[in-house]
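Dear Dr. K.,

Following up on our conversation at the group meeting, I've run the structure prediction for ABC transmembrane type-1 domain-containing protein from Elysia marginata. I'm pasting the input sequence below exactly as I used it, so you can double-check it against your construct before we proceed with anything downstream. Let me know if the numbering doesn't match what you have in your notebook.
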Amino acid sequence: MIPLVEVVAVVVVLVVVVVVVVVVVVVVVVVVVVVVVELVVVVVVVVVEVEVVVVAVAVVVAAAVAVIVVLVIVVVVVIVVVVVVVVVVVVVVVVQKVIIFVVVVAAVKSNIENISHNLAHKQLLKYKLQH
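The predicted structure tokens came back this morning:
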């Protein structure tokens, strides 16, 4: 059987890896969004000649929306990972308990069979001695 400490250690490592990957993805997405928004701002300012204030407000709104979307995705991923980890730990613990129960039941059954066999043997010996 797998010790519970090892299961928890593996689960913790998996959670850390997932969190690191999610953070890296978030950083990359935010950087890409900011770069794209800045390029759009430059194109709009140069080509369309819109006022800089209007473009700045649009950039701030777009960046805020992008960050909110990324944060929502991160929260959902973390929740899913935590749920999966909890389910895995519970399943492993339950399986270990079931295995222990089966082994104990088998041992008790074997002991009962041995005791009944010994009693039958003693009764047979008594019968033979009496006759």
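Two things stood out to me. The chain has a mean pLDDT of 79. The CA atoms of residues 15 and 81 lie 7 Å apart.

Best regards,
J.T.
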